[in-house]
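User: Structure tokens for both sequences below?

Assistant:
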Amino acid sequence: MRRRTLLASAGALVGVAAVPAVATSARAAAPGPSLTRTGTTTLDDQALFFVSYDGLVNNNSFQKNALLTHEGHQYAAWYTASRQAVVARRAVGASTWQKAEIGHALRYDDSHNVICLGLSRTDGRLHVNLDSHSDGFTYVKSEAGLTDDPAGRDWTASRFGAPQATLDGLALTSQFTYPQFIATPEGALQLSYRAGVSGNGRNALAEYDGSRWTALGEWSASTGTYQGSRGSSTARNMYLHGIDYDRGGRLHAFFTWREQNAAVMCSAGGLTNHDTGYVRSDDRGRTWYADDGTPAGVTGGPGLVTVNATGLVVDPLNADHSLMNQESQATDSAGRPHAVISYVPGRFDQCTTDYVADRVAHGRAFHLRKDASGAWRKTEIPVPLNSSQRTRLVLDRYDNAYAVLPYGRIAAASAGSGYADWRLLFDGAGLDAFGEVVVDETRIAQDGVLTVLYQERSTGTTPSPLRTVDFALPA
């Protein structure tokens, strides 16, 4: 597979003006990226705050979705200062949120135990999965039709069923982590999750058809032998950067491997994450293929996606650069996959010894994408992370790319330039965001607005405000 790396210019400009598109026959009339700030809301003046694994439980990159938009209403979820799980809604553009506590309190001070929302269009239910890290989960679902008629139904806790330890009786695994709801093109709902633990876990899927949940099974394996430049490992976990359907119904997943054996990296203070991989499915996640069409695995087996499968790596990197897991991905209007990844480039360090300090000092984010010719290209986003944390990636209706960086900063690049003109459009001024932020992936396609959920900085366990900020993208 031929690969070429494109490096963006080193300059960065703060502003909200659109970046002029390069004049091509395909993109001559398309506007470049731009941001117009349209409003801010407060969900909770006193949201739960504690730092765990360098992050917050109300703002973690792998929350899919902490924000969700449907039928002119936006939904959000978080934990209050008293640890109660709350689900809220507002009419899009409204300044206030209606809130309902759903009968569950966060068990541990662990930022993995996020709240995720999903919506099944087949029956109009809102689904909630929360409070898990390699143990049991809690699941709550709304009454049928609640999201189909938001104006006609009040928002109260009585609209939701009792918290459950299963999916309506379906028990998945006793070691459950990283729930992500995915809406299928037909309107069903899938749940992606990890079975197992960090360094020895498997990705799996379950599916809700509007009447019942079914376990589809595991699709990635923790077995096999990875031979790095420094040592080998025989157990690992595939960490997803996302799992998303494009407009044509293809399911895409970028990932990185985390090895169990620290012998694969140069220093015990680094991360055992290595390589960026990619797989796709054309049958709703039942079978998986590498980018070149080589069969890679079958959900539920026999034959899961393993570290030894051919053709999976689209951007190779060893375990010495503190490559981050679980960043972000998107697909463009032609169904081509895009991802954002981050690590410490070799020009700064060939052996990171403290992944937090080294990423803060030298970490950079990169835009990785497949172009129209089928080649993989990578562009460095010329904005220092100044953080150990993750970046979110979204595309607007013109396929311009926006990287929502730690602290709520937003950089962007135009599709017309081949994503070579990355620059900073918003520097996060006035947000006082802690670090990682969450975005509403669903709203952009519906009304061209980017909503960012962030929590203000605090210290210790002192609660702090949880807010949203809206940006209008090119119309």
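Moving on to the next sequence.
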Amino acid sequence: MDEHARPGWFTRLVSRRTVLATGTAGLAVPAALALGPVTPQRTAAQSGVVKKITLYAEALPDNEYGYGLAPGRATIPGPTLEIYEGDTLEITLVNNTDRRLSIHPHGVDYSVDSDGSPLNASFNNPGETRTYTWRSREVVATEGRRLMPGSAGYWHYHDHAMGTDHGSLGIARGLYGALVVRRRGDILPDEQFTVVFNEMTVNNRVAPHTPMFEANLGRRVEWIAIGHGNQFHTFHLHAHRWADNRTGMLEGLTDPSRVVDTKDLNPGGSFGFQVIAGDGVGPGAWMYHCHVQSHSETGMSGIFLVRNADGSMPPGAQEAIDRFRGHDHGAASPAGAHAPHQHPPTR
């Protein structure tokens, strides 16, 4: 198999926890969340650990590009990066392409030289290595019994310099990935999937070549959804639902969060949630797709395969997969979307 074949087979071999910085603080409730009068506090620029990683930006087949954790291992999307609130992430980006590019984050703190934009002369020229520093913060108290939000959330990163001074070409060609900032005490998933609606593609692919994600019945699955391009979308997951809040889980019987199974996913936006695979519905081949019908019809759909608890294939699932691969997904694929040989399921 071509090691550059998509989508991200090497990423699946790298444990999530290899890019998750474990903070030094314990699980105590922050003082800002205690009842009673509070004194305004300021968050230190760095209150946790410093996680250092190296990313390699590389050219891929079909005129695409990706980020990877090792030379020759670039994928679309790039590897999911994770830290805890209060931690700092230092990314040494090695540009192994012949194009100018960068890396720009959402949801965290950074100085102008780590902005990743040509506006601030923050980018990598061809062959150049540059370090970007991203910081995160915890919830803190401020005046009037108010709380300033921390960095926890499902965010993302992307190029901001290829092709134009806004990086439109880099995003179109696959230079993007997920960034997760966790709050200490958050429940970690068993499986984790990233879905990027980029123009009229899913992870730069159209059905039936979109990724098939897999989990065994009862496993805790975390989905990270990201929007790019110029199109407006909605993300829908069949047979599963989640709370429309930071984690996807209700925090008590009085939690007012709506429970949803479809959510808008628009350019530059992102969200995430956790579900239990097959909870209440059992194993099977379940669709995920954009619920703008014309988008779903022309290839913005894929399969979430929930296997039996022992990992075996449930009855009817293979037949459903075969039908999906044989469906008419539109007379023409969106410009820039490629259909390589079928890749193994993402796990």
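User: Anything stand out in the second?

Assistant: Helices lie at 9-13, 168-172, 293-297, 317-326.
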